[in-house]
């Protein structure tokens, strides 16, 4: 069993599911992959089930009853990963906007953080966004500036969804108290990790807009993030009481 688990939420990703799975399966060091599928009507889950016969011990599927949101998909995946005793847990999109070949770099950076986390950052030196319209780039960039102005996280790419968590981070954050489901979920996880004393490394990556399938982004997600940041400023953040496993 690999100690590294990549979590990919899916909803109508039949164009990308097999290709992203094969890309992750080809990596060294080895990674395992958990798809969290929200009852995709396009047959995404069946594609994954077919692939499980080829990768029976490394490719996993968690099926949910309906479209419940990105944040809740990751929380379900985190809980599954903790039960299975993985040491490093990754967030990644299905649409190749995150390059699977960057996963080993995120892993190495997280290992060097002494129990913290790392993110694939678009806005540090060497990182960039490819094939996005200018208005979306500016919206994303200034969103991170706004987050830092309010929350003082000190992370250049606060809404990044390409993330590696050490087990200790996920054990320390009380997942039952995560409140947001879209961009705000990504911000909340980083904010809580930082407030609980964990370091966050930013690894430069090239973020490429999806070529296949439909984007799940909408104005409701942006509005949740804008208002959610203000709500986070008033949060009382306490670590979950756990007994850490010796490693």
Description of the molecule:
The protein is α/β, with parallel strands linked by helices and 247 residues long. It has a single domain, classed as Alpha-Beta Complex (Spore Coat Polysaccharide Biosynthesis Protein SpsA, Chain A), CATH 3.90.550. The chain contains eight helices and nine strands. The longest helix has 18 residues, at 134-151. The radius of gyration is 17 Å and the shape is globular. The two termini are 16 Å apart. Mean pLDDT is 88; it is low at 243-247. The protein has helices at 17-25, 44-52, 70-83, 103-111, 134-151, 167-172, 183-195, 219-233; strands spanning 4-10, 32-37, 59-63, 88-91, 117-121, 128-130, 163-166, 200-204, 206-208. The strands form two sheets. Strands 3-2-1-4-7-5-8 form a seven-stranded mixed beta sheet, with helices on both faces. It has a two-stranded parallel ribbon with strand order 6-9.
Count of discrete domains? 1
SSE pattern: EHEHEHEHEEHEHHEEH
Task: Tell me about the largest β-sheet.
Answer: 7 strands, mixed
Give me the Rg, rounded.
17 Å
CATH topology: Spore Coat Polysaccharide Biosynthesis Protein SpsA, Chain A
Fill in the keyword field for this structure.
seven-stranded mixed sheet, globular, Spore Coat Polysaccharide Biosynthesis Protein SpsA, Chain A, 247 residues, alpha/beta, disordered C terminus
């Amino acid at each position: 069993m690999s100690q590294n688990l990549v979590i990919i939420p899916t909803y109508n990703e039949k164009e990308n599911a097999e290709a992203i799975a094969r890309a992750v399966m080809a990596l060294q060091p080895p990674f395992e992959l958990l798809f969290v599928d929200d009852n995709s009507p396009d047959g995404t889950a069946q594609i994954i089930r077919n692939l499980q016969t080829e990768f029976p011990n490394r490719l996993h599927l968690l099926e949910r009853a309906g479209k419940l949101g990105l944040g809740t998909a990751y929380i379900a995946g985190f809980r599954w990963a903790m039960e299975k005793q993985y040491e490093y847990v990754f967030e990644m999109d299905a649409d190749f906007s995150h390059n699977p070949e960057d996963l080993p770099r995120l892993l190495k950076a997280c290992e060097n953080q002494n129990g913290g986390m790392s993110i694939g950052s678009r806005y540090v030196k060497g990182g960039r966004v490819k094939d996005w319209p200018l208005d979306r780039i500016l919206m994303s960039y200034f969103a991170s500036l706004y987050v830092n102005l309010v929350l003082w996280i000190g992370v250049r790419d606060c809404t990044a969804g390409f993330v590696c968590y050490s087990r200790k981070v996920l054990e320390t954050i009380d997942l039952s108290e995560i409140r947001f489901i879209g961009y705000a979920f990504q911000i909340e996880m980083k904010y809580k990790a930082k407030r609980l004393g964990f370091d966050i490394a930013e690894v430069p990556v090239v973020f490429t807009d999806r070529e296949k399938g439909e984007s799940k982004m909408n104005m409701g997600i942006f509005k949740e993030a804008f208002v959610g940041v203000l709500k986070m400023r008033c949060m009382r953040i306490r670590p979950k009481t756990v007994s850490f496993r010796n490693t």
